[in-house]
């Protein structure tokens, strides 16, 4: 299985290497880097357009890691990342966990259950944003793996409020 090496905000601008201050506006972007997905943060001054290979991006503020509750990236960014995971046959359990998160956030809606061609239980999901149906194998990770997936998703897709 491929594990994505994900990192929280480095508090440094990816373009200028300048330190980003707590409370400063910046842009966060998810970028495909081979089989990996990395998060890069850019100061407002250094931001022009999303880099080539960007999966999604959003404007945020540099958070104090010791204050406030976490906030997720915009739903469209999370949906784009989910669609990227659909293409990775080694990410079935991560795809399932993210699908459940997107159902909880009401980005995806459970339309039903069916068996896939290998006889596995599969969720049939519908996205009203893009009028697309998805089929995701119900691949329940072990408790340890579920915690690792949740941590990876949080590091990639969360920021903290002020």
Kindly describe this structure.
By secondary structure, this protein is an alpha+beta fold. The protein has one domain. The chain is 25% helix and 32% strand. It has 3 helices and 8 strands. The chain has helices at 75-86, 92-104, 143-157, and strands at 25-33, 36-43, 54-61, 70-72, 108-115, 121-127, 132-137, 158-160. The protein has a 3-stranded antiparallel β-sheet with strand order 2-1-3, covered by helices on one side. It has a 3-stranded antiparallel β-sheet with strand order 5-6-7, covered by helices on one side. A two-stranded antiparallel ribbon has the order 4-8. A hairpin with a 4-residue loop joins strand 6 and strand 7. The termini are far apart. Residues 1-6 have low confidence and may be disordered.
Structure described in brief:
Helix content is 25%, strand content 32%. The chain is α+β, with helices and mostly antiparallel strands and 162 residues long.
Produce the secondary structure layout.
Elements: E1 25-33, E2 36-43, E3 54-61, E4 70-72, H1 75-86, H2 92-104, E5 108-115, E6 121-127, E7 132-137, H3 143-157, E8 158-160
Antiparallel strand pairs: 1-2, 1-3, 4-8, 5-6, 6-7
Helix pairs in contact: 1-2, 2-3
Q: Could you report the average pLDDT, rounded to the nearest whole number?
A: 81
- Calculate Rg over CA atoms: 17 Å
**Order of strands across the widest beta sheet?**
2-1-3
Q: Approximately what portion of the residues adopt beta-strand conformation?
A: 25-35%
Q: How many domain units?
A: 1
User: Span between N and C termini?
Assistant: 36 Å
User: Rough shape?
Assistant: elongated
Question: What percent of the residues sit in helical stretches (DSSP H or I)?
Answer: 10-25%
The run of helices and strands is EEEEHHEEEHE
Structure classification: alpha+beta
Poorly predicted runs are 1-6
* Structure summary, number of beta strands: 8
Count helical runs.
Answer: 3
Largest sheet: 3 strands, antiparallel
């Amino acid at each position: 299985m491929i594990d994505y090496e994900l990192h929280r905000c480095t508090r440094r601008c990816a373009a200028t290497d300048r330190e980003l201050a707590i409370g400063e506006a910046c842009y966060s972007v998810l970028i495909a880097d081979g089989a990996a997905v990395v998060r890069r943060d850019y100061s407002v001054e250094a931001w022009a357009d999303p880099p080539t290979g960007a999966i999604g991006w959003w404007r945020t503020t540099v958070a104090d890691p010791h204050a406030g509750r976490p906030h997720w990236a915009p739903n469209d960014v999370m949906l784009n990342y989910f669609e990227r995971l659909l293409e990775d046959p080694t990410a079935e359990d991560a795809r399932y966990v993210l699908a459940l998160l997107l159902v909880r956030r009401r980005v995806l809606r459970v339309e039903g259950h069916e068996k896939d061609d290998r006889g596995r239980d599969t969720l049939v999901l519908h996205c009203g944003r893009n009028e697309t149906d998805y089929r995701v194998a119900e691949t329940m990770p072990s408790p340890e793996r579920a915690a690792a997936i949740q941590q990876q998703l949080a590091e990639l897709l969360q920021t903290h409020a002020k």
